[in-house]
Write a structure and sequence with these properties.
One of its GO terms (molecular function) is copper ion binding. The protein has about 550 residues and is mainly beta. It is built from 4 helices and 32 strands. Strands 1, 2, 12, 13, 14, 15, 16, 23, 26, 29 and 30 form an 11-stranded antiparallel beta sheet that branches. Strands 11, 17, 18, 19, 20, 21, 22 and 31 form an 8-stranded mixed beta sheet that branches. A 5-stranded antiparallel beta sheet has the order 25-24-27-28-32, with no helix packed on it.
Length: about 550
């Protein structure tokens, strides 16, 4: 357990506008960080026990296989459509994804962390998980590189090799070089881990006209080669935010490496409560994609990125004892989106920082040559500020970061205003003339996709108490297009809809969940999208997007 104290500046004695929370800040803000759930050693022990059960041994007998990813699974990840799927507390089930190289299949093993030998379920999946750190290293060795070689999963990280009988080969797309070689001379390869063969892709010479031998043609930072945390590394903390003796916020926070969904979801929140009243059951970023519109560059044209590969950034301070993946910073944590806009750092995980009356949670992620900043801010007045930052590096063998491209980030916000059910959503639209804060509120009756519009916002309320949180779009959140679909969706909660699953392309497919179900007086989920043009040839200006979520009325 760790408590951090920071003196706050005094706030105004009365709200500036109707509905704004009044907080007296004479007392210091404090934060308490405590470990929740199992350690990495306990998780690995449970997986080992499950692998040694007769059921799993029979399924994997005489095969060459590797465990690629292990995650704890919450009930909403395991539930199906129409199932409430919600439960309190930490997940006790785990899922191990195993690739069977002999038979070309993905084997999913679900077990109970407390008794893995007695309760194991086995299934198969046609969707291959992302490459593990060990796989990338093995691919480089198959390609003839030494054990000290520098190797990365390129974009896209996997090459589709599915056969008519439903089996597949495991083909990794990598960039590799020896540590003493010029970084600009990295070799781009396809490495088949199933038959241990190597191919040179047609894109291996891409971008040669847009770069010199050793320098980028834009202002992107060079790749620092900072440490990466393997996916599936456990790390969940119970965070309590106080002001004096008053508990303002409580929540469970999962580090990105352990976040849910097929591609991860950045810093993930669960059971978020303000002044001992429920606000969010779960909040995260399960979908992140990018599109290159300029033809002939060899980039993209689209990618689906991952949000669970923690990458080094700067967080001077102390690790929280006994809570892996969490550190309290003594000065603001910085990533590639902050001056001096350089790559890397020595800390991986979630940074916790007190900024006045606000607690900041921050992490940096890597997906190929992209760098992403996942951030949540919790203010004493009840405001929640989710933020996502976009950066990139000049990567050996590719200059795609220097080609203008569009990022699209999708937050999933599972609101539980005071209760899981009994919530409603209303849309505010301003009057055609007059002050923008005057307008009409209309109930959202059925599941729907809605566009942003000037001064439009959405309110989620408890139908019995009237307590409300409003979602206000960010001024830097861009516009949707044919690939970066949508701005906001209102859905009825259904278990299993934590991401859009295996999709036929890299676009977001949230609209498949809009099935004309009622969202009146029930459990509701909002998906919110932001869109960003990333142009490293004109790098100045904000690279950060996100909405603001504020309480309305009294929450004392």
């Amino acid at each position: 357990m760790l408590r951090l104290l920071a003196t706050s500046a005094a706030l105004a004695a009365m709200a500036k506008a109707q509905g704004e929370q009044v907080v007296l800040a004479n007392d210091p803000v404090t934060v308490r960080v405590e470990r929740v759930g199992f350690s990495n050693a306990r998780l690995q022990e449970a997986v080992t026990q499950a692998l040694n059960t007769g059921q799993v041994l029979g399924a994997l007998n005489d095969t060459r296989y590797r465990v690629l990813r292990v995650d704890f699974q919450g009930s909403d990840e395991l539930g199906g459509a129409g199932c409430s799927g919600k439960s309190a507390g930490t997940a006790e089930a785990f899922q191990a994804q195993v690739f069977d190289y002999t038979n070309g299949r993905v084997v999913s093993i679900i077990g109970d962390a407390f008794s893995p030998a007695s309760s194991v379920m086995i299934g198969e999946s046609g969707h291959q998980p992302l490459p593990s750190v060990d796989e990338v290293a093995e691919a480089a060795r198959i390609a003839g590189f030494s054990e000290k070689a520098v190797a990365y999963a390129a974009m896209p990280p996997l090459v589709d090799r599915v056969f008519a009988n439903g089996t597949s080969h495991r083909v990794l797309h990598i960039l590799a070089r020896e540590p003493d070689e010029d970084s600009a001379r990295s070799t781009e390869l396809y490495v088949n881990l199933s038959n241990r063969t190597v191919e040179t892709p047609a894109t291996a010479s891409r971008m040669t006209a847009q770069r010199t031998e050793s320098a980028p043609v834009c202002d992107a930072s060079p790749d620092s080669g900072a440490h990466v945390t393997p996916r599936g590394t456990p790390g969940v903390a119970q965070i309590t935010i106080l002001q004096g003796a008053t508990v303002l916020w409580t929540m469970q926070v999962t580090r990105p490496a352990a976040s849910s969904g097929g591609m991860g979801s950045g810093i993930e929140l669960h059971a978020v409560r303000y002044r001992d009243r429920s606000v969010l059951y779960k909040a995260h970023v399960p979908i992140l994609n990018v599109e290159y519109k300029q033809p002939g560059t060899g980039c993209g044209p689209t990618y689906r990125d991952w949000q669970n590969e923690e990458y080094g950034f700067n967080c001077p301070g102390s690790d929280v004892p006994g809570v892996p993946g969490f550190r309290v910073c003594t000065s603001p944590p910085t990533t590639i989106v902050d001056p001096p806009y350089v790559d890397g750092g020595s800390y991986n995980g979630v940074a916790v920082y007190v900024s006045g009356t606000t607690i900041v949670l921050r992490s940096q992620l890597r997906a190929g040559w992209y760098r992403y900043t996942s951030e949540w801010r919790f203010a004493a007045d009840g405001t929640v500020t989710p933020r996502w930052g976009f950066g990139g590096v000049w990567w050996p063998g590719s200059g795609c970061i220097c080609v203008p491209h569009h990022h699209h980030v999708y937050w999933r916000l599972d609101f539980d205003i005071e209760t899981a059910g009994g919530n409603r959503v209303r849309e505010f639209n301003p009057n055609m003339s007059g002050p923008p804060n005057l307008g009409t509120l209309a109930d959202v009756v059925y599941e729907v996709q809605r566009p942003r519009s000037p001064a439009r916002h959405w309110e989620v309320s408890n139908t019995q108490t009237g307590r409300t949180y409003a979602l206000y779009p960010g001024t830097n959140d861009g516009a949707s297009d044919a690939f970066g679909v949508g701005d906001l969706w209102v859905l009825r909660y259904n278990g299993g809809q934590i991401d859009d699953g295996a999709v036929p392309d890299n676009a977001a497919h949230i609209s498949k969940f809009t099935n004309a179900e009622s969202v009146v007086d029930t459990d509701v989920v909002l998906w919110y999208a932001a869109h960003f043009l990333h142009d490293e040839q004109h790098p100045h200006g904000s690279h950060i997007v996100g909405p603001t979520i504020k309480p309305l009325g009294t929450w004392q």
